[in-house]
Amino acid sequence: MLLYIHLNDRIRECYLSMIPYFDEDNIHLEDIIEMKFKELLYNIFKNQENRHVLAYVNAISEGYELPIWEVYGK
């Protein structure tokens, strides 16, 4: 399934700000990339034109007791 994501300047800038971190070899960058990815998701969900994306994420996450970010950290 593909979902169209409406891009605004904030989402585009957030995405572009992540790219340089993938070119560096630093153990601490994993935390920064995770934070930037969460920021990107927040901006996508916050945009009213992406309501369908947030609705989809809510629909597939119903019934799970642990949020996805807690599963990743284990």
TrEMBL record:
Superkingdom in the source lineage: Bacteria
Ranges where the ExsA-like N-terminal regulatory domain occurs: 3-56
Protein name in the entry: ExsA-like N-terminal regulatory domain-containing protein
Species, as recorded: Formosa maritima
InterPro entries the UniProt entry points to: ExsA-like_N
Pfam family, one: ExsA_N
